[in-house]
Design goal:
- By secondary structure, this protein is mostly helical.
- A two-stranded antiparallel ribbon has the order 1-2.
- The protein is elongated.
């Protein structure tokens, strides 16, 4: 089943593109610049090969990782959602707000329905899934790509890749330090506008501080931040610390 995920046009295109970048970097740029028989050329080729292997590994883990699903036994805390209200009608409305209108399943905080998987996915990010494990994997993949592509200066394709991946890396750094997904970012824009219209201020409820946000996604050990398989710090994905819990 996991192997079938690699048999799609976008995934194959990414691998072909990485192979193209590797070829022109090693056998055109580095070979013509320093030669593959010299110590400088060999060192640069080895460094770029290592970074590309890490990039391919991170990308492969992201493709093979399951997007996650809501546990069948999950039931939302309707009393917490209703603000402590005790009437049956208010509790019922609170439960309905947490129920998916497409698959009729209860949704934990930050979960969204995926039309491809036809089920709700924990902490979904934009058009493809991004459970916390995948957010870390995508971060490491973007990091390795950007720091490897600085060896490449031949061709507009590679320059465009550097700009695109550099932007992607910067965007994910912003999301991680604010502990949000792209969907939550756009939802926050509307929430901030509504709050401002009412004379109130808005803050993302899951933004618990820069270091804490980074630790929740990448882990508390900085030595494992660039390792896509170091995910022991991740929990079940149905509950998250909020500003209220940390205040």
């Amino acid at each position: 089943m996991k192997c079938q995920r690699f048999l799609s046009v976008p995934i194959i295109a990414v691998f072909l593109l990485l192979g193209f970048v590797y070829y022109i970097t090693i056998f055109i740029f580095i070979k013509d610049w320093a030669g593959l028989q010299t110590s400088a050329g060999l060192l640069n080729a080895l460094i770029f090969t290592l970074l590309l292997c890490l990039c391919v590994f991170s990308f492969s883990v992201a493709v093979a990782a399951d997007p996650g699903h809501v546990p069948s036994a999950y039931v939302p805390d309707v009393e917490d959602d209703s603000g402590g209200a005790s009437s049956d009608q208010e509790l019922k409305k609170a439960a309905e707000r947490r129920q998916c209108d497409k698959c009729s399943a209860y949704k934990p905080p930050r979960a969204h329905h995926c039309k491809v998987c036809r089920r709700c996915v924990l902490r979904m990010w934009l058009s493809f899934h991004l459970l916390s494990i995948k957010q870390k994997i995508l971060w490491t993949g973007s990091f390795y790509r950007v720091h490897g592509l600085h060896f490449v200066f031949c061709g507009t394709v590679v320059l465009a890749l550097s700009l695109i991946l550099g932007t992607l890396l910067g965007w994910h750094i912003y999301l991680i330090i604010h502990n949000m997904t792209t969907i939550e970012y756009h939802e926050g824009i509307r929430a901030a506008w509504l709050a401002k219209k009412s004379g109130l201020s808005y803050r993302h409820p899951f933004d618990v501080g820069v270091y804490k946000n980074i630790s929740l996604v990448l882990g508390s050990n900085m030595l494992t931040w660039l390792c896509p398989t170091a995910i022991s710090h991740l929990k079940d994905g149905t509950s998250f610390p909020t500003i209220r819990h940390t205040s």
